[in-house]
Amino acid sequence: DTAVSQTPKYLVTQMGNDKSIKCEQNLGHDTMYWYKQDSKKFLKIMFSYNNKELIINETVPNRFSPKSPDKAHLNLHINSLELGDSAVYFCASSQDRLAGLTFGPGTRLTVL
Amino acid sequence: SQQGEEDPQALSIQEGENATMNCSYKTSINNLQWYRQNSGRGLVHLILIRSNEREKHSGRLRVTLDTSKKSSSLLITASRAADTASYFCATDTPLVFGKGTRLSVIA
After folding, report:
1. How is residue A100 annotated by DSSP?
2. Across the interface, do B43 and A40 touch by the CB < 8 Å criterion?
3. Is the pLDDT of residue A93 over 60?
4. Which of A12, A22, A29, B100 would be B86's cystine partner, CB 3.0–4.6 Å?
């Protein structure tokens, strides 16, 4: 049973397209996150939701829009994709903001 | 944003040896966490140490925390080839991770 799952695993698309990445957790956690890991392996938080409410939004372009239909799902929609958006995107969840995170397997996004 | 910075950037040891990685951070914390990332995979949570704790053990892992020096260390004893991975520290709500320490354990 996968605790945090993401789809798709790989995403290759052209500049200017709009794409979505889906995330689901079956751990009953209250808090979910999106992280971006660039080619230099820096892992940086993008968003955090707690019980469907946005609590962290870290200087991310407004082309990125998270959506949380319920506390088990946190999807990431990206408009007008740019070359610099190429990275691995990780979804994660935790019971609360001070607990350890459980990460998904990542989605490798390549923008051509 | 709080940030952990790991040192060294890369570490190569023989199987059976101990591996020590260090982490420094900048501001006061509630807790510090260590994660492992195997190549091409997501991060796996290893251990969380609270600011009022000085040492914590989990299997072959030993973590120390020195809040006066704003530093932590992760010790992996009797390393195995399967321990080969990148190791990251992060503080509180992990906002920003460092580049990690890339550990290679040679059989």
Report:
1. P
2. no
3. yes
4. B100
- Shortest distance, CA A5 to any CA of chain B (angstroms): 11
The position carrying tokens 């251990």 is B47
Distance between CA A112 and CA A90 in Å, rounded? Answer: 20
Q: A30 φ, ψ to 5°? A: -90, -25
Burial of A57 (0-12, 13-18, 19+ CB in 10 A): middle
- Chain B positions contacting chain A at CB under 8 Å are 1, 30-31, 33, 35, 40-45, 48, 86, 88, 92-100
d(CA A11, CA A29): 27
Closest partner CB to A45 (pick from B44, B95, B98)? B95
| Average of per-residue pLDDT across B30-59 | 93
